[in-house]
Amino acid sequence: MKLLEQEKLKTFEHIDVESTIDRKIFYSKYVTKNKPVVIRGLTSNWKAKDWNIDYFKTKENGKTISIKVGNVSEGRKEQMLLSNYVERLEEYEQNLKLNIKAESPGYLHDIPFFYMFPEYLSDIYPFPKKLLPRFYWKKWQNYIQFFMGSTGSLTPLHFDTLLSHNLFFQVVGRKKFILIDHKEKNNCAIRGWRWSNFDPQNPDYEKYPEAKNVKIMEAMLEPGDILYMPSGMLHQVHGLSQSISFNIDWHTPKTAAKGVASLWKGAPLKNVYYNALIFAGLVFKIPEKLIFSMYKSYLNYVS
Questions:
Q1: What pTM does this model have?
Q2: What is the mean pLDDT of each run of 10 residues along the chain (303 residues)?
Q3: Rg for the chain, CA atoms, rounded
Q4: Which one-letter DSSP state was computed for residue 123?
Q5: Between the CA of residue 43 and those of 124, 171, 219, 229, what are the distances in Å?
């Protein structure tokens, strides 16, 4: 028997919003309690808020980037210059406005942008590094993964592979996040280690009845906003406009240890390696520069 239409629709719960936040409150109220939060407008004074196609073209340096084509979770990629991609992106957005059918430009997804293009770093100052553990402070930019995509871009429901905390920075455009607590993972039709077959935006409770009572949260991000997602939180990401954003995956000693132990819950063996490195840096005070020399391959692995 089919569920009633109103039962198919899920009411999204909004999460906390702060206009400013200090380190002590951030950790006591959110990190230690595994509770997400949007910090509204904290980076709205960055130069990066004015990034556009012409600006990217002026800084072209010949390095190619990987663009994901098709479903993000499948990982099919094309290599191209950043200037070529932003031109493709701009053309797609113009066609969208004119209601002209156009081929998707693909999604610049999960690349270590500021490691590859340090010339853009001055555009994201001042950076709120004090929200991170001290281990990351000196070279926080090396841990950034970058996203650029079109209106309608979609990352299916998943959780971050290392079970790390996540600070997500919305720079240009708007995005919607749908969030589900990691404790609900087994009710979300996970395939492999971290991707979900369940679509919380259009839930099919006949196909996935175990998801019916899952608590679903929603966060709307504007330029200058930061979203904090605690360790293992499932998230689905919708590009509501042409968008530029980036995130930092980071650990506390507790979550790094949890990440190492996740091998016994089905995590890939490589996850243990990367989590163990960060655990060694956080707990045994091994210098970050030594850790990163062994960790940097993660920046490609995660994508």
A1: 0.94
A2: 44 87 97 98 96 92 91 82 95 96 92 95 97 98 97 96 98 98 97 96 96 96 98 98 97 98 97 98 97 96 86
A3: 19
A4: G
A5: 8, 8, 17, 17
